Structure formats: C-alpha cells, structure tokens
From TrEMBL:
The keyword Lipoprotein does not apply. It is a multi-pass membrane protein. It comes from Cyprinus carpio. The chain crosses the membrane at residues 9-30, 36-54, 66-86, 92-114, 126-147, 167-193, 205-227, 287-305, 360-380, 560-580, 592-616. This is Solute carrier family 15 member 1.
Length: 661
C-alpha cells in the first residue's frame, strides 16, 4: 500500500481482499467494539440510577431518555468538525479519546468504596457519584454522537465508484456489526452486574459492568489507529457548515428583497444566492436540502421504535427473564440483514420491480405499524388475564383477620365484610390509586426475622417486597426457633403470606397464602411475531436510510447529511419524553393502535414526498457545474488516473491495486 503525489493530485493505491479495501475491516471491527461499549453501558444504566443512586423511576427514565437524545444530537457537532476542520479520520480519533475518558469516568463513579467511609456498602456522598456519572455521560454523548456520522461516511470513502455493490454490502455489514455488539453486550453486562464485588463490602458489581465497556472502547480506539496507514483520508474543505448557513441566509434575504412581481422568477429559491456565492456550493446545498426535506416525517418511526421494549411483561420462555426478550431484536437483525441483502432484494430486482431505497423505507415503516397492531392483539389477550384494578378515582383497602375466629367487619358507610380466620378481603372505594405487592403479615406473638426481609413486630407487616421469578426460600427465626418456607413465584404475581401463632410448631406449614394477583399466563413467545415485524421494518428503514444518506450527499457534506439522519432519532426520543408527560390512553392496546395509525399516516405522507424525489449522482452534478464554470471536469482527471493505473498494474505482479483520488 502506498501513496504518491503527481503534480497537484494525490493518488492512493490501496490493497483489496475479496474485492473490498482492506481498510474497511479495521473500521467494522472498530464499530463492533464501540457499539459493544455503548450498548453494554446503556443496558445497566437505568438499574444504576435506580439501585445505586437511589433515584425514582420517573427521574431515572427521564435522565436516560435525555442522555439518548443527546447522543443523537451531538452528531451535528461531529459532522461540522469533520467536514469543516479536522477531517473524518482525526475527528474519529480525538472524539474516541473523549468517549473512552467518559466510559472510564462512568466506571469510576460506580465504585461505592470511594465514599463508603463507614463500610456499610452504601456511598456516603451521593453528590460525588452523581456529579462523576453525569460528567461521564456528557463525555460519552459527545464521543459516541460525534463519531456517529463520521465512521459510516469514512468507511464509504474507502470505496471506488466502480465498487457500488461492495459499498451497499458494506453498509449492511456495518449495521450487522452494530447489532452484534448490541447483542453480546446486552447479554454479558447484566450478568457482570449481578456479580458481587467490592473492597470492604460485597455489592452488585456495577464497576465491572461499566468497566468492561470502557475497556472495549479503548480497544476500539486502538484498532482504528492500527489501520491508519491503509485509510483513504479526504481533507476538510474549510468551514463548510458556516458557508452553507451564510449562503442560505443570503438567498432568503435576497429573495425577500426582490419579492415584487417585477423581478423574474428563478428556478429554485437558492438561486437567489447566485450574485454572491459560487454555483458549485449552491448546487451542493440544493442536494442536501432535498434530502433533509425528506427527513421531516421520519422521527415518528423512531418515536414508536424506541417504545418496543415497553411490552416485556410476560411469563418466562425457556427459563429466561422478560428483559431478555430484547435480545430477540439484534438476533433477528443478524439473521435478516444478510437474507435481505443477498436474497430478498436481488430477487425483487430480478422480477423487474423497481424497489428503490425510498420505497424500501416506506415498506419498512408499514412493517413497524403492523408490529404495533400485533402488540395490540397480544395486549388484548393479556388484559383478559388481569384483575380489575382501581381507577384513578379509587383506592383499594386490604383487611387481614389474624384473629382465631371469623370476624364481621363494617366499613363506613354501609359495607359489610365477613372474613374467616387468617383470611383477606379487598374493598374498593372512590379515592386515590394504591397498589398491592408481596408482603408477610406477622400473626406470631413475638418479633420474627425473615431471610432478606425486615424484622417484623407482632401484628405488623413487612415492607412491600420484590422477588425474582422461580422458587424462593424464606427462613423465619425467633431466638433458637426457626423454620423454612418455600414458594414458587411467577411473573406478575402478588401474594400476601399470613403467619399464624403456631408457625414453629408445624414447621411453617400453617402459613396461609393469599394470591392478590395471578401470575401472567400469556406466553412470552407471542411477542416474537411483533419483534419479527419491527425488526424487518428496522432493516428496511434504517440500513437503507444510512446508505441513502451517503449516496445522495456531496462529497464535502457526507458527514453533515449522516448527522441529519441521526438527528431524526434524537427528535424521536424527544417526542417520547413529551408524550410521556402528556399521559397515555387508559387501555394499552388502544395506545398501540393509535401508534400504528400514526405511523401509517406518516408512511403515506413520506411515500408522496418520495414519489416526487429524483435520485441524483452528486459527483455528476458537481462535474457538470464545474464544466459550466469553465473548470476542468473531474471526469478528465479520472480518465488520466485510470490510464496511469493500468500502466501501474501491468508492472505490478503482486496483485490488483485500485486508485483513489
């Protein structure tokens, strides 16, 4: 691999493997490690907020979505830096360093021993851990968002124009690496978190769960740097974003000044910038604006797509946990991407059908809408198995009889309950909403200690307790007396356990179980069709959109357009936050059908916009503008280089080399 300079032209001779530039193998490995780092950290982030920083669900969820939105907003900054200042290669290097520092900072913030002076397993200074974790998340958002638009575009820069098929395959493989990293990290980091570690006290091992992603980010950086000598590196062309903004601003201002009908109309409103700005820049801006206009309805797809993880509430499948259903998505992507790329799309093409990128994206949105219809049907089945919950204007009262005989209880104004000994009755009245959870009621005559629970005084209850699915053992102890109580718990169930005064004399067999809420009986496998549909939609929408954004962008604005594509995801997450604050429909299935209807409407709008879109070849348009301006067309340069390449190949016996300007 070598690079030489002839007059004012740099000619890159790059080695290939199986028709692909060797340099892209470093790029896809880099992407795999980076995605493992990002999704591994994200997989345990909410749990860290809830159980380490002790935040409530609302705050944890809000900070999480705000972080994700920031990760998809910062690509704009990365694109500006890459296309206007440092170039893609240096931008990836520098922001990856920021990214790695953020991951290390985040891992350090999870070490409870740093501020645990009294060694009780709980940090004494939460402000320190919160400040450090927020700093880490900001650095991670800057890093991961900043390199997002650069890595895919930089990989595309490694290909020649005659390698269009390989370029399309590259974007599919690139997306495969994203989901392979996501799959492995989503499986591994929760397991790491469940381990116990610590210097003075053993707690859930958040430092390990966050530390491994930090190590993977460092590896990602090292791998990318290792391929430095093989990359095709294009230089930045000045502050292109500032030039674009000034050009657009001048066109709008000039059009407003000449709004009178006495002035002749121009073909495009950007043509009003001809008096001051270069025609090539104006042509490039027109190309970008056409694509950005198409992006306007796309955030709705991401708004719905990001809610796919909110429906895992079913019974275990093959002994798994509900949150493990999220791994179905990357598994299906790893399966569907090569099938689509190598089988489905070529078959459609051979049938003579024009399945253009924008048509693929439209069909992808319709598949996502069908996924929400499937989710609604499953939710209807779930609702049939649920108890009648109190409405927002009602509360629920639980009356427990620990007396030795049946009692008649009257609740004002005129509600009568007949409760047997160690029985329970529920009474609903108009007031506020209250929930019921698993708890123990002590009917023994003295204090009791229960394994992993609080000590209970006579005629008192434990705090509401969450337990894992499966068989669980509880040891009840009072002084030298003890007995063991076992119970198998199903997902979604809620129980009250009544402990009688004779608990030790019959070895815990007299404990009465009251099933407040039955376990979920709808099988988790019913989710697979909706996951298949949403993943099919994602492959057709997201992979195609990534490729489309690169192919329709001028060479000096490819990172900018990639950033615009990623910003549709950021806007989608912001919409999720807004919708969460506005509230939801009373029926979950109705909400799913509403989402599906909205996405179908957006698909129709997008298909109409796509119908009027004309696909372009940015390089051809740029060459035509240069020719009109009297500049040497790039085609003449390419022909010259191709002739030099043929001469070079005849002399070279080591293999085929390709030429890149």
């Amino acid at each position: 691999i070598k690079k030489k300079k002839e007059e004012d032209m740099f000619v890159y001779l790059t080695a290939e493997c199986c028709g692909y530039p060797i340099s892209i193998f470093f790029i896809v490995v880099n992407e795999f490690c980076e995605r493992f780092s990002y999704y591994g950290m994200r997989a345990v982030l909410v749990l860290y907020f809830r159980y380490f920083l002790l935040w409530d669900d609302d705050l944890a969820t809000s900070i999480y979505h705000a972080f994700v939105a920031l990760c998809y907003l910062t690509p704009i900054l990365g694109a500006i830096i890459a296309d206007s200042w440092l170039g893609k290669f240096k931008t990836i290097i520098y922001l990856s360093i920021v990214y790695a520092i953020g991951q290390v900072t985040m891992a350090i913030s999870t070490i409870h021993d740093i501020t645990d002076a009294n060694r009780d397993g709980t940090p004494d200074n939460f402000t320190f851990h919160i400040a450090l974790s927020m700093l880490g998340l900001i650095l991670i958002a800057l890093g991961t968002g900043g390199i997002k638009p650069c890595v895919a575009a930089f990989g595309g820069d490694q290909f020649q124009e005659h390698q269009s098929r390989q370029l399309n395959t590259f974007f599919s493989v690139f997306y495969l690496c994203i989901n392979a990293g996501s799959l492995l990290s989503t499986l591994i980091t929760p397991v790491l978190r469940a381990q116990e570690c610590g210097i003075h006290t053993q707690q859930q091992c958040y430092p390990l769960a966050f530390g491994v992603p930090a190590v993977l980010m460092v590896i990602s950086l090292v791998v990318f740097i290792a391929g430095s000598g093989m990359y095709v590196k294009t230089d930045p062309e000045g502050n292109i974003m500032w030039s674009v903004c000034k050009c657009i601003g001048f066109a709008i201002k000039n059009r407003f000044r000449h709004r009178s009908s006495s002035y002749p109309k121009r073909e495009h409103w950007m043509d009003w910038a001809n008096e001051k700005y270069d025609k090539l820049l104006i042509a490039q801006i027109k190309m970008v604006l056409k694509v950005l206009f198409l992006y306007i309805p796309l955030p709705m797809f991401w708004t719905l797509f990001d809610q796919k993880v909110s429906i895992c509430h079913f019974s275990g499948l093959l002994g798994g946990l509900p949150d493990q259903m999220q791994t179905v998505n990357p598994i299906l992507i790893l399966t569907l991407v090569p099938i689509m790329d190598r089988l489905i799309f070529p078959l459609i093409q051979k049938c003579g059908l024009n399945f253009s990128p924008l048509k693929r994206m439209t069909v992808g949105m319709l598949f996502a809408a069908m996924a929400f219809v499937s989710a609604a049907l499953v939710q209807i089945e779930i609702d049939k198995t649920l108890p009648n919950f109190p409405s927002s204007s009602e509360s629920q009262l639980k009356v427990v009889n620990t007396y030795s005989t049946t009692l008649n209880v009257t609740i004002s104004p005129n509600e009568h309950l007949l409760i047997e000994s160690f029985g329970v009755q529920l009474h609903t009245s108009k007031h506020t909403y209250s929930t019921i959870s698993c708890m123990f009621v002590n009917g023994y005559t003295a204090d009791l200690n229960i394994t992993n629970l609080d000590s209970i005084e006579p005629s008192a209850t434990t705090n509401y307790t969450l337990v894992n699915q499966g068989k669980r053992d509880f040891v009840l102890r009072h002084g030298e007396q003890w007995c063991e109580f076992s119970r198998k718990f199903g997902f979604g169930a809620s129980y009250t356990f009544l402990i009688p005064s004779t608990v030790f004399s019959d070895d815990c067999e007299s404990i009465t179980e009251v099933e407040d809420m039955k376990p979920n009986s709808v099988h988790m496998a019913l989710q697979i069709p909706q996951y298949f549909l949403i993943t099919t939609g994602e492959v057709m929408f997201s992979v195609t959109g990534l490729q489309f954004s690169y192919s329709q962008a001028p060479k000096n604005m490819k990172s900018v357009l990639q950033a615009g594509w990623l910003c549709t995801n950021a806007v989608g997450n912001i919409i999720v936050l807004i919708v969460a604050e506005l509230g939801k429909l009373p029926k979950q299935w109705a909400e799913y059908l509403l989402f599906a209807s909205l996405l179908v409407a957006v698909s129709i709008i997008f298909s109409i916009m796509a119908y009027f879109y004309t696909y372009i070849d940015p390089a051809e348009i740029e060459a035509q503008v240069r020719k009109e301006q009297g500049l040497e067309p790039e085609e003449m340069e390419k022909e010259t280089i191709e002739m030099e390449e043929k001469d070079e190949d005849q002399k070279n016996e080591q293999g085929v080399k390709q030429t890149k300007i």
